[in-house]
């Protein structure tokens, strides 16, 4: 049933048929999935021959080959049975009927009921708020995956939920080190991911919150304020609500940051993924007297891949590569130059590594020299340096060379246009282009 608009149907598409000796057919029985990791050396092609399948909530068109880039990990799930063709080698693949999809879908259905109630209730600001779901749990518990499912199913039903990504280590909207949000109006593309053009992006600049906890909290608060402003004027976004993805850091300071996010975004439902008895206990205790916050513990899918630190590092690199060159190397990155006077680079937080607690929000100018090579800089919309922390960013550049003699900087940009602003933010994020 659709509460926010029309449902979509994917029956009619056709695509070119290509066969290679590596093409194999896979039959999936009802409520089962094939879990795949694409190898590092080559992409993988896949198409649906019969039946309906989805990748993390996004239904695939029948008979259309999709190309998945190296290292992508995903599951193709079917509710009623399906046949697929896979062209290429997989690093791993296995099918399973043991999935938590029924419980995940039932969460979606109850969120739709809440959205429906909001739609048919009075129009005042408080009673017209849709559900705000925050997903918490350990690293590799499937948080981002569940977020994608809830977003895609809601978008398929015609809603426009807002995705909030607080996971600076493995960001889903754009490059790592960002705190961002975007309205999701279409099911999430299984290859391209989330659209970036309407996103509100703040640059934290580090892939771990411990580098500057005060700044992390400040940016979370800033983003929440911006979304409240948007919700105040956009009834459709307001009633569709939010799905918030978090870092997989749930103890000590990480737990405090989760509490902070739950409160700042006024979450109505906290989904704890995995066997997190202590976390569930602590959250229930913390929100005992808040009847408008529900805590729910859901099973982690056994299909979620566990990613070691080197693999995570590689994924961060790939995420930056995707920003400049597209998911399947389908975009052009432009090499350009700028004069030293065209770029003012700043850091947030004084002497981060040595004195983490002192002046975490101080804006310090960075001398332009060879140390900038290999760094990723955010282009800030700030008009003045002191507005940097409260401003979103326009995008990112990657510094490839600094010519001290000619006073020129060479950088890579995803756009051929001139730089949209002069103020840049530097963090600790680097990229080793391959
Ligand atoms: N059922 C599944 N089958 C195959 N792969 C899956 C499945 N569920 C999740 N994955 C993959 O497992 C990896 C980890 O999942 P996900 O990113 O959702 O975890 P997470 O809890 O958000 O991790 P982190 O907090 O560390 O960023 C991802 O590459 C995801 O695509």
UniProtKB/TrEMBL annotation:
Q: Could you confirm whether the keyword Membrane appears in this record?
A: no
Signal sequence extent: none
Domain of life of the native organism: Eukaryota
List the record's Gene Ontology CC terms alphabetically. Answer: mRNA cleavage factor complex; nucleus
Q: Which residues bind ATP?
A: 33, 140-145
Q: Where in the cell is it found?
A: Nucleus
What positions does the domain Clp1 C-terminal occupy?
334-432
Keywords, alphabetical: ATP-binding, mRNA processing, Nucleotide-binding, Nucleus
Q: Name one GO molecular function term.
A: ATP binding
Q: Name one GO biological process term.
A: mRNA 3'-end processing
Q: Boundaries of each Clp1 P-loop domain copy?
A: 137-326
Q: Enumerate the spans annotated as Clp1 N-terminal domain.
A: 27-117
- What role is this protein assigned? Required for endonucleolytic cleavage during polyadenylation-dependent pre-mRNA 3'-end formation.
Q: Which family does it belong to?
A: Belongs to the Clp1 family. Clp1 subfamily.
Q: What is this protein called?
A: Protein CLP1 homolog
User: Can you name the source organism?
Assistant: Brassica napus (Rape)
Q: What is the lineage of its organism?
A: Eukaryota, Viridiplantae, Streptophyta, Embryophyta, Tracheophyta
Q: Which gene encodes it?
A: BnaA04g11670D
């Amino acid at each position: 049933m659709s509460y926010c608009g029309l449902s979509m149907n994917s029956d009619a598409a056709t695509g070119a048929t290509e066969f290679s000796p590596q093409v194999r057919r896979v039959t999936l029985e009802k409520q089962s999935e094939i879990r795949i990791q694409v190898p590092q050396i080559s992409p993988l092609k896949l198409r649906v021959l019969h039946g309906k399948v989805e990748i993390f909530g996004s239904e695939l068109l029948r008979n259309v080959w999709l190309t998945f880039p190296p290292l992508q990990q995903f599951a193709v799930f079917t509710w009623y049975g399906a046949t697929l063709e896979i062209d290429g080698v997989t690093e791993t693949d296995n099918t399973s009927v043991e999935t938590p999809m029924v419980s995940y879908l039932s969460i979606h259905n109850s969120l739709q009921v809440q959205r429906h109630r909001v739609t048919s209730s009075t129009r005042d600001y408080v009673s017209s708020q849709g559900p705000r779901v925050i997903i918490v749990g350990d690293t590799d518990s499937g948080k981002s995956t569940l977020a994608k499912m809830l977003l895609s199913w809601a978008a398929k039903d015609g809603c426009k939920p807002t995705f909030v990504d607080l996971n600076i280590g493995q960001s889903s909207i754009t490059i790592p080190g960002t705190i961002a949000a975007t309205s999701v109006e279409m099911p999430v593309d299984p290859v391209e991911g989330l659209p970036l053009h309407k996103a509100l992006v703040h640059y934290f600049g580090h892939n771990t919150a411990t580098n500057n906890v005060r700044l992390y909290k400040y940016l979370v608060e800033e983003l929440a304020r911006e979304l409240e402003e948007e919700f105040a004027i956009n009834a459709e976004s307001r009633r569709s609500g939010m799905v918030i993805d978090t870092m997989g850091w749930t103890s000590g300071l990480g737990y405090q940051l989760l509490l902070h996010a739950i409160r700042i975004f006024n979450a109505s439902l906290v989904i704890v993924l995995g066997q997190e008895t202590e976390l569930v206990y602590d959250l229930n205790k913390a929100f005992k007297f808040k009847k408008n916050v529900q805590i729910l513990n859901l099973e982690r899918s056994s299909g979620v891949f566990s990613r070691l630190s080197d693999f995570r590092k590689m994924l961060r690199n790939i995420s930056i590569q995707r920003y400049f060159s597209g998911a399947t190397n389908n975009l052009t990155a432009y090499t350009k130059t700028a004069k030293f006077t065209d770029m003012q680079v700043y850091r947030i937080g004084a002497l981060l590594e040595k004195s983490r607690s002192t002046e975490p929000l101080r804006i310090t100018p960075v001398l332009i020299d060879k140390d900038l090579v290999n760094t990723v800089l955010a282009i800030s919309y700030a008009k003045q340096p002191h507005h940097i922390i409260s401003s979103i960013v326009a995008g990112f550049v990657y510094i490839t060379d600094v010519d001290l003699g000619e006073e020129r900087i060479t950088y890579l940009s995803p756009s051929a246009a001139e730089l949209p602003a002069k103020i840049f933010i530097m963090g600790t994020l680097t990229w080793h282009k391959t």
